Amino acid sequence: MPIGVLALQGDVREHIHLLTELGSTAVEVRTVEQLATCDALVIPGGESTTISKLLVNFGMLEPVKEFVSSKPVLGTCAGLILLSKEVVGRLPDQQLIGGLPITVQRNAYGGQTHSFEAEVDFSGVSETVAFIRAPKIVDVQGCEVIATLGGEPVAIRYGILFGATFHPELTGAKELHRQFLSAVESV
Ligand code: GLN
After folding, report:
1. SS3 call for 147
2. Tally of domains within the chain
3. I want to staple 88 with a disulfide (CB 3.0 to 4.6 A). Which of 54, 105, 109, 178 is the partner?
4. Residue 125: helix, strand or coil by DSSP?
5. Which CATH number is 67's domain given?
6. Catalytic annotation on 185?
7. Does the pLDDT of residue 56 top 80, yes or no?
8. Ligand 1 proximity of 170 Cβ (cutoff 6 Å)
9. Neighbours of 30 (CB within 10 A)
10. 113: pLDDT strictly greater than 90
11. Rounded distance, CA 9 to CA 136, Å?
C-alpha cells in the first residue's frame, strides 16, 4: 500500500517527489477513503492552526488520530506541531492530533524573516534543510533524537512516529524520509 501525504495544505508535491525518489509509491490524501488505502502518512508543514481547522472541516481529525495510534506517521514543521502533546503558543481554537509525547514551541526562531537554511546532523550524516517559521522541541520526553542543530533536537522518533522541525523536502534532503521508510518497511 502507498504512503499518503496529507494534502490539505503545504508542500505536498515536494514530499511525494522525495518519497518517489526513494522508491515508494506516494499519494495525496484529502479524504477518509484515501487515508484508508495508505500504509503510512506524512503530514507536511504549512500553518498548523489552518491545517487543524481543515482537518475538522474535512471530517479528518478523528480518522487521522486513529491512524496515528497504529501506523507510521511523519510530521514536518506544522505537521510536527500537530502531532505534539503540548504546544507553547497554541491558539485557543487549534486542535492537535497528538501522538508524540513532546512539547514544542511555535515560531521559536521568530517570524517569516527569521527563516533560514542550515546543516543538521543525523548522527554523522549532515544535510542542508530549511527552517521556516519553525518550532523548537523544548521537551523530548522519551523520544529518540535523530537529528540536531547546534546540539538541540530538531528531529525525533517515538516508535513508528517521526517528527522534524524543518522542511527536508524544500532542499531535497533525504535522510529523514529514508529513516521513516525503513520504519515503514519494518512494521
Ligand atoms: N509556524 C507554523 C505553525 O505554527 C509552522 C511553519 C511551517 O510549517 N513551516 O504552524
Report:
1. strand
2. 1
3. 105
4. strand
5. 3.40.50.880
6. no
7. yes
8. no
9. 15
10. no
11. 21
